[in-house]
């Protein structure tokens, strides 16, 4: 019994690769080679070196003293906000650009919603001098001008998706279309633990450096590798997968996943996939997703762009269904308050995604001696305007 993926990419009943026949050669090439490539010494050496010298790892595991005092428990923050580009996403794009090179690809495509994954992808493409095309919904291009500018400055071409709701899912469709048309020279960098097998497992492995470091750092600080709980916010689920990875099969460590309730679970404006989702297929993977009675994907809503996704990765669907993970949903309002509170208590302005994870302490009580590690997935610079408007700062 394991909570990791099996060879076919299933986590319990979730996962797999439900893809159109025309995409099969691309996905199969990646599937048949990813584990062997990741095991190669030359791959590991370059990956570790870039994580250290370029991304700035290991990121600190910081004991949040004033926050801990306020909530009567021991809270450590895993500082992914200090990664180059300001969030955990770059761990994955560094891994995938090296994978692309090993596969002999010289053209990268990606999809992006808020632009964070687009920026992380454009960054590593600049680093390696590889052509980069980022598909982005036309509406999102308007809403996320600073990230569009960043991608352009990094040398990427940003292509608007003009169909459907002109947001993330339409950008994903465009990227898939591109990949079908360019199967030989192109690698598709997916930004979270979603998509057809092997993406969820591959991305989780690239992000697993987070829990590998937590184990070492906690051993040094507390004399044990195991916290009582690991907490992370879940959009697609990549920062959470990285923070849980080495603890998945260790029942001593509680797993807490935090989703965006938006304006409230029953408000019709929410992204709380575990609470609202039903089994279905999205982006090539069988998982939980928000859908109408006849299976059309529902537009999600959250104040935080990174959690605004109608599905959840198959690892998380299985953690929910099996009861291994405790799932909590947090409203916009509670998240915003928690973000402001962390700024005032610790001098750290978190991304609004991360603020959702911090907000659980208001209602979810822990014991005084519990060690609770919160994955601080990103910094709040990108969200300053939202904080300013919300609090009239
Ligand atoms: C993108 C993003 C998330 C959500 O993505 P996951 O794949 O669920 O981790 C969370 N936090 C930050 C800071 C992000 O940029």
From TrEMBL:
Pfam families registered for this protein in UniProt: PALP
Gene Ontology, cellular component aspect: cytoplasm
Keyword Phosphoprotein: no
Family matches, as InterPro entries: Trp_synth_b_CS, Trp_synth_beta, Trp_synth_beta/beta-like, TrpB-like_PALP, TrpB-like_PALP_sf
Domain Tryptophan synthase beta chain-like PALP as annotated: residue spans: 56-378
Keyword Transferase: no
CDD domains: Trp-synth_B
EC number: 4.2.1.20
Top-level taxon in the UniProt lineage: Bacteria
Transmembrane residue ranges: none
Catalytic activity: (1S,2R)-1-C-(indol-3-yl)glycerol 3-phosphate + L-serine = D-glyceraldehyde 3-phosphate + L-tryptophan + H2O
A single MF term (Gene Ontology): tryptophan synthase activity
Subunit structure: Tetramer of two alpha and two beta chains.
Free-text function comment from the UniProt entry: The beta subunit is responsible for the synthesis of L-tryptophan from indole and L-serine.
HAMAP family: Trp_synth_beta
Protein name: Tryptophan synthase beta chain
Originating species: Christiangramia fulva
